[in-house]
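== Protein entry: sequence and backbone fold ==
=== Local backbone shapes as whole numbers ===
==== Amino acids and backbone structure tokens ====
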Amino acid sequence: MIVQLTGTLVEVTPSRVTLDVGGVGYELGVSSTTAAALPHTGEAGVTILTRLIVREDAMELFGFSSRSERALFDQLRAISGVGPKLALAVLSTFTPSQLAQVVATQDATRMAQVPGVGRKKASRLLVELSDVFNKNADLRELVGLFSPESDQAPLPVAAMGSVESEAAEALLSMGFTSQEAELALEGHEEAGALTIEKALAYALRRLGGGR
């Protein structure tokens, strides 16, 4: 696995970087955020963090200016229906801190500004990423939006009905029927999905990641 490269910048565009490493030119797909953070072409000793993706028909190398951006790229790709191209589109639209802010406020309008992301997909991405930021200690510490204790705090029993109803409303807004929402949320309390975000993530997993 190639995790980083150090060499001379040959070319930088908003989506591609060419790095000369010991006479070998590596082309890396990058976000516009990473491209903007790099020095001018011709600069030597430039280190770029990388992620190699191997497919049946190709090997693709992607570059990142920070560990947090690479971590988010990995987490975005782990979401059903999100490939490298869409992951880079998200990271080109938001810096890691900006993305954390969008996720924390569940701002579907801003998330839908990402090319290729409609309103329904934006809502699903926000739910999935909310779970990511809560569980990933490095990302949580980076943005300072979630405390370790907040994810552990139990929800009062009286609020259970509210969680289910609000999660159902969110599913309805994504285009699911009331029957689909009801069936998908069955058993969420027993599974420990006691917040709206967790209940939504639970339901979407049962629904196969959305439509």
About this structure: Residues 162 and 196 are 9 Å apart (CA to CA). Strands lie at 4-12, 16-21, 24-29, 46-54, 59-64. DSSP finds ten helices and five strands in the chain. The longest strand covers residues 4-12.
